[in-house]
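During the first year of the project, the team set up a workflow for recording each protein of interest as an amino acid sequence followed immediately by a discrete structure-token representation. This format lets reviewers and collaborators read both layers of information side by side without switching files. As required by the reporting guidelines, we include two representative entries from the current panel. The first entry is reproduced here exactly as it appears in our internal archive.
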Amino acid sequence: MSKKWSSEAVRWLDADEERAWRALRRMMIAIQSRTAHDLAAIGLSDPDYEVLSTLSERPGRASTLREQAAKMGWSRSRLSRHASRMEARGLVRREPDPDDGRGCYLVLTEDGLETLEDAAPIHLESVRRHVIDRLSPADLSALENIARKLEEPA
């Protein structure tokens, strides 16, 4: 079903808003693709690193599939498929969730932790090279403020 908008109802972007929006989109794509490229060079995807790093910070190095999917903005089924690939590589394992008979925990394995420890310096260098070292302290503060405003749903 298509929703037709009248020209009067659409709040078109003015030239300044259009430039800012396009710049934000280009920035997000550039940073994500550059850091993902650096991780790929060591055999990890961006989502692999996100799962490993998140689990490493959790008590017991574990998180429910539901919590992890929500953090990543993914569906549970998408994360489940991705976790299966990580499980086959020995990076994570699944354990039943005693509070949810249909759910499970993702648990960081020792191999997963070792992989993360090997990858972290490379990832941090990538983040520095592509973002942090290119911005002044004032830029970083402004970026953080903007990010906080945009991370919450409208």
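The second entry, processed by the same pipeline in the following quarter, appears below.
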Amino acid sequence: MADTASRDNPLENVLERAIKEVDGDKVTFGDILDLFGSRSFGPIIVLLGMLVTVPPLGAVPGLPMIVGLVIILFTVQIVFGAKRIWVPGFIEKRSISKDKLEAADKKAKPWLKRIDGLVSERITMLTGEWAVYASAIIIIFLALLMIPLELVPFAVAAPGAAITLYGLAIMARDGVLMLIGYVLAAITTALTIAFVPWDKFASFFGGG
């Protein structure tokens, strides 16, 4: 399951590629899957994680929940060896305007360039096939946490950042980033337990 399509793609160009290579004024989730290919686990996970981490995208109401569902569907199917990734039509057609993507790209690019400069192939035993499967399970868990964390302002950036790190670690075979991802996943879990208004969350889904 390890990504072989785009290990050398710099992080700073992931958003730019989605902007430039998709026709029209909007980018759909179906476009993203088609652009990177169903087996390009690392780049798609990086891009989806960035969608809820980089402002102003993370502040779009409902976007973290949709991104979380896409991540779960994508990751589960990859884990079980799907050749072609399926997502429901209403998710596949859900779009993000290129204006918002361009604004996010402009804000994030200087920081992403710095991160790219710190990434290298190291402690590769932590990025082997078993590690990719383990990180996939954690990514699914983090995507689920996006749902309650949407009730906490800006909190979805925490699981989004962890997911982005996992994707980048897989792309670059960087075991140090994988370790940082584990730490950030633990911090995200603690934040979820401490700050999510669980009574409000329960009443929302219970219809009360």
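For the second entry, the following points were noted during internal review. Confidence is low (pLDDT under 50) at residues 2-9. The CA atoms of residues 3 and 41 lie 5 Å apart. Both points are flagged for discussion at the upcoming steering committee meeting.
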